């Protein structure tokens, strides 16, 4: 048993971890997000939603923390989706496969770049679609949102960076280089009103907004 744990730890430490995930048997991934922060994000994303027997699509699954949590909360089917290609994405895919394997849960995986036209064609519909920490990384997030509406049967859970503004009008700031957190993959800073109205404009009838402790983040639950 000790050797198995040591072998698992050695393999786990090959990967970069953003999510801290308790995989059981003393194995916890060393994510940049602590277990406490992950627990808060799970509550903000899932509490009050019934996942039991539901199908869940996790877009931007990364290390798989939210896919695993959805399955642990009773989801019948979970499909973890992330982009193919780049070296860092291969690392993420390997870490996802590791986490799923060690969790002992049945979770499907798929590689799609949601910004590619038609990337979600044929993927089917899901009761719950997770779109967490993805919106502001996309050059054209509005296009992607419009593709998510027809595949969402019940609720889309969207989490994103938001800007705090005294202007109550819907607005979104564009970051052409690395102005946001010195990360060139961060493109947009919407305010809360912008995201809410975008979700309603593309067809969702009701939007719940949850503000975490970090006021530069927000969770939106958009219902059909």
Note the main attributes of this structure:
alpha/beta, two-stranded antiparallel sheet, seven-stranded mixed β-sheet, 224 residues, globular, 6 helices, Rossmann fold
How does the SSE layout of this entry go?
Elements: H1 2-12, E1 22-24, E2 27-28, H2 35-46, E3 55-59, H3 65-72, E4 77-82, H4 87-103, E5 108-111, E6 126-132, H5 141-148, E7 152-161, E8 172-174, E9 188-190, H6 192-201, E10 206-210, E11 217-223
Parallel strand pairs: 3-4, 3-6, 4-5, 6-7
Antiparallel strand pairs: 1-2, 7-11, 8-9, 10-11
Please tell me what the overall shape is: globular
Kindly name the structural category.
alpha/beta
Low-confidence sequence ranges: none
Strand-residue proportion: 15-25%
**CATH hierarchy: architecture:** 3-Layer(aba) Sandwich
CATH superfamily: Vaccinia Virus protein VP39
Number of strands: 11
CATH fold category name:
Rossmann fold
Following the backbone from N to C, one meets helices and strands in this order, namely HEEHEHEHEEHEEEHEE
Task: Give the rounded overall mean pLDDT.
Answer: 93
Q: Estimate nothing, just give the exact number of structural domains.
A: 1
- Report strand order across the widest sheet: 5-4-3-6-7-11-10
The biggest beta sheet reads: 7 strands, mixed
């Amino acid at each position: 048993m000790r050797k198995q744990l040591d072998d698992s730890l050695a393999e786990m430490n090959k990967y970069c971890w953003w999510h801290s995930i308790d995989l059981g048997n003393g194995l916890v991934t060393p994510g940049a997000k602590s277990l406490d922060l992950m627990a808060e994000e799970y509550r903000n994303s899932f509490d009050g939603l019934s996942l039991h027997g539901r199908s869940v699509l996790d877009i931007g699954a990364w290390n798989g923390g939210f896919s695993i949590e959805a399955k642990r909360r009773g989801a019948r089917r979970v499909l973890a989706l992330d982009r193919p290609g780049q070296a860092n994405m291969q690392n993420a895919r390997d870490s996802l496969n590791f986490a799923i394997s060690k969790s002992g849960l049945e979770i499907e995986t798929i590689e799609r770049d949601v910004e590619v036209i038609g990337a979600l064609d044929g993927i089917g519909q899901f009761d719950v679609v997770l779109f967490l920490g993805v919106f502001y990384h996309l050059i054209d997030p509005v296009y992607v949102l419009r593709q998510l509406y027809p595949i969402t049967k019940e609720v889309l859970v969207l989490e994103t960076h938001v800007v705090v503004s005294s202007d109550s009008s819907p607005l979104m700031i564009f970051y052409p280089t690395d102005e946001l957190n010195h990360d060139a993959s961060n493109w947009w800073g919407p305010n809360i009103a912008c995201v809410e109205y975008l979700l309603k404009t593309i067809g969702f009838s009701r939007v719940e907004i949850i503000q975490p402790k970090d006021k530069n983040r927000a969770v939106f639950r958009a219902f059909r």
